[in-house]
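Dataset card, provenance and construction

Sequences and ligand SMILES were collected as paired inputs. For each pair, a complete structure of the chain with the small molecule in place was predicted and serialized as structure tokens. The example below shows a pair involving magnesium ion. Curators did not alter the output after generation; any descriptive sentences attached to a record were derived from the structure itself.
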Amino acid sequence: MIELDGVCKSYHRGQLEIPVLKGVKLELGSGEFAALMGPSGSGKSTLLNIIGCLDTADSGRYRLADTDVDGRSEDDLALIRGQRIGFVFQSFNLLPRISALRNVELPLVYQGMARRERAERALAALERVGLADRAEHAPAELSGGQQQRVAIARALVNDPVVILADEPTGNLDSKTGHSVMELFLALNAEGKTVLLVTHDLNVAAYATRVLHMLDGEIETEERR
Ligand SMILES: Nc1ncnc2c1ncn2[C@@H]1O[C@H](COP(=O)(O)OP(=O)(O)OP(=O)(O)O)[C@@H](O)[C@H]1O
Ligand SMILES: [Mg+2]
């Protein structure tokens, strides 16, 4: 499903080039559930953003399902992202002034879907995460765990093949974090490929593969 080879990425500070990814190789099969761990600054978010088509590599190969992603234009990347990827962030990234339902609808608005179908699909996604009864609430009227579930509904609304999450439980207490992980587990059981970044061993324990990143490379991995 996801295949990277020799992926490199540097950031630039004035004249200084700071290498962040130094030839990442990764193969993730369809239906896998993997956790990416590693010290702060090792490049986990940078890698996840490239896999999620939010950023591009400087060099290397990236294939997602049957698509060559490397070398694509911004527009192509937006399309690939919109059709195949659901992305969940640590800080939820919901728009504060619109309802949960409208937040979940947003990816469909960008696709130009008709209003009625949009609302139906968004409500179904909220139902999937157990929050249909909170559809009209604003994010501030929801708990952290509920806000993250709304964000997961938004990630699901396009029916993506891959779900990526960057420290999705980082802002949640451990009990709420576990309920969010149960949701990822259920989505994985339904066939979604899941890759998440975490610092928490209890969160990584849900995954069947744990990849360890160190200094811009995937150094080791465990399979469970
Ligand atoms: N936009 C940017 N501009 C310049 N440097 C950046 C940028 N984003 C990240 N970096 C640098 O790249 C390195 C890797 O950052 P990244 O966010 O991928 O780490 P991480 O493994 O996700 O860390 P954390 O666990 O703290 O989230 C860091 O040294 C960081 O300072
Ligand atoms: Mg990070």
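Derived descriptions for this record:
The pocket of magnesium ion (ligand 2) is lined by residues 44-45, 166 (CB under 6 Å).
The domain at 2-223 is CATH 3.40.50.300 (Rossmann fold).
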